[in-house]
Design the sequence.
């Protein structure tokens, strides 16, 4: 049998592959994921756990029994973007940058995301990725009026969220547990956006545009170890937020640290996104 052709990957990306298989009509299907990196993580986090791309690669590669995953990494904050149509799904990472302070690369990324959405390619934006998606589709992002959200948090699914093909499959429960750290937030849904989740720390924890583009404010790629390291990296922000809100810093810090515990639903969400991306890929195969 001849080997199916695979589009060449762009020279600007780094490509990694995990060993698992999905079949249709006897052909091995490689699920090509574009990982759009939008910034570098804190140094202490990077030194222990790797950068944002490494966090996602670990979680996506732990997709036992799923498709053969090939990940192309592009550093969009340094001007890299993947050719449109070259991947089966897109993940947009978090970032220390702010959507409220646009730069030339953020405008280019927003336009690229709109074009890829129009192609029908599944997209998942995480934290900054969630915010840039909202901005790209006409929503509003501001400094979070509810303050600096950090730690392991409860997220409440809306009725639409409980029916959602991504979030609604995470269990028969209204409240889910994820790790979060952010100072900006989506305060107005994008045009046609559907609210899927909220909580006390952010009025838009997740949304969907169309049937294949999602934004989540929380971090499904974080482990509890990464979350603890992030808290130590963001002590000055936690203190500034406590002062601004009239809270005792030491009590606030103790509350944040004590909130942290494993949040395995993050991995399940990422694996479910792969399943949805594979379904989209297989629908496009003739026969």
Sequence:
């Amino acid at each position: 049998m001849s080997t199916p052709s695979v589009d060449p990957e762009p020279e600007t990306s780094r490509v990694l592959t995990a060993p698992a298989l999905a079949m249709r009509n006897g052909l091995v299907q490689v699920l090509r994921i574009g990982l759009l990196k939008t910034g570098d993580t804190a140094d202490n986090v990077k030194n222990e756990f790797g950068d944002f791309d490494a966090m996602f690669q670990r979680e996506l590669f732990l997709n036992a029994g799923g498709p053969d995953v090939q990940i192309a990494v592009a550093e969009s904050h340094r001007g890299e973007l993947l050719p449109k149509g070259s991947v089966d799904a897109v993940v947009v990472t978090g970032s220390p940058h702010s959507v409220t302070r646009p730069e030339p690369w953020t405008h280019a990324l927003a336009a690229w995301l709109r074009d890829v959405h129009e192609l029908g390619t599944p997209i998942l934006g995480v934290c900054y990725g969630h915010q840039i998606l909202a901005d790209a589709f006409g929503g509003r992002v501001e400094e979070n009026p509810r303050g600096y959200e950090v730690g392991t948090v409860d997220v409440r699914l809306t009725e639409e969220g409980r029916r959602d093909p991504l979030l609604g499959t995470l269990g028969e429960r209204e409240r889910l547990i994820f790790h979060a750290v952010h100072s900006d937030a989506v305060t107005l849904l994008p045009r046609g956006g559907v609210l899927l989740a909220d909580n006390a720390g952010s009025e838009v924890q997740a949304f969907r545009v169309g049937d294949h583009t999602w934004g989540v404010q929380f971090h499904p790629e974080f482990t509890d170890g990464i979350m603890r390291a992030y808290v130590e990296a963001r002590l000055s922000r936690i203190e500034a937020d406590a002062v601004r809100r009239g809270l005792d810093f030491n009590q606030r810090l103790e509350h944040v640290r004590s909130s942290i515990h494993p949040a395995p639903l993050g991995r399940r969400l990422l694996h479910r996104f792969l399943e949805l991306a594979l379904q989209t890929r297989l629908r496009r195969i003739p026969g």
In short: The two ends are 17 Å apart (CA to CA). The chain has one domain: 14-222+264-283. The first helix runs from residue 43 to 49.
